[in-house]
Design brief:
Blueprint lengths: L1 E4 L5 H12 L4 E6 L4 E6 L7 H6 L3 E5 L19 E4 L5 E4 L5 E5 L6 H14 L3 E3 L16 H15 L3 E4 L14 E4 L7 H8 L5 E4 L6 H13 L5 E5 L17 H8 L4 E3 L1 H5 L5 H10 L4 E5 L17 H18 L4
Parallel strand pairs: 7-8, 7-14, 8-9, 9-10, 10-11, 11-12, 12-13
Antiparallel strand pairs: 1-3, 1-4, 2-3, 5-6
The structure holds phosphoenolpyruvate and manganese (II) ion.
Amino acid sequence: MIIALKQDAGRDEVRNFASALEKQGVKIHFSEGASQTVLGLVGDTTLIDEESLLAHHLVEKVIRVQEPYKRANRKFHPADTRIDVPGADGVVRHIGSGYLGIIAGPCSVESREQIVEVAGAVKAAGAGLLRGGAFKPRTSPYSFQGMGCDGLNLLLEAKKETGLPIVTELMAIHQLEVFDEVDIIQVGARNMQNFTLLKELGRCRKPILLKRGLASTITELLMAAEYLMAGGNDQIILCERGIRTFDSHTRNTLDLSAIPALKRQTHLPVIVDPSHATGIAWMVPAMSKAAIAAGADGIIVEVHNNPEAALCDGEQSITPEEFGGLMGILRKYAELEGKKI
Ligand code: PEP
Ligand code: MN
């Protein structure tokens, strides 16, 4: 249930009104806009009487929210959420609400030379954040599983050298112990519905990059975000990374329509991963442009200094030079969309 308050509602009155509602067993989520405060009620609202709410002098409108996601719902929080990620270089990166987040780097951290070289190159080209997997979810147990803690340490070295904030995947909750200096925690497609993991990460106060499951609906993605938000973590970035369809021409099928669909339903930023969506490096620039044109708040793209020798996902990785060219084009797309990089 959503209660939109009258414009002249005073702060103290609003607090008293909200605590009276909380006594009826619901939790209140405040959204204070420039001209109006909106109260989002989470929990069992069936016993709350709409008529008497409407009779209250502070109340302008009461809306029952049909969707099962509440905190992630745009009705609860009409303004776009912006995620702010400070870098060690003193620059704060913004994602959402008019800012495009550009995350680039290799699929996996492979060596010091590789990660430091790619990090420097993507930073020079204009990326705001560095990606790199240390713990890798692989289909085969015999494939390269990532460098684990050693990889994470190399990623931290690249962070130190470039000042770029880092994004890396967490696969199990015990790994949180070594994620202190990670700036954004990635929950991969395969873990999107690992509810135990989501509950635990809901308690942490770092931004989470939540990737859409391979065969998950938009509502399921929003419900996964709701799990994180129900625990009090409201810094969630959603990522469309392609879904399974009948067509095997590309690794996955990039669901571009998920972008406007999500942006209508939620205030959370939505970014696109054109690398895993297509699995084909030459398609990455076209899909990156399409993502920004469709209203995405950024991209996460795989960049490798030697794609042919990559230990993971080389065929979908673009080179630093190609990334540089793409950035030039994306700056123009950002301008057309009225967004900043
Ligand atoms: C990744 O980003 O490295 C990754 C494994 O992505 P996804 O979870 O989308 O497959
Ligand atoms: Mn990959």
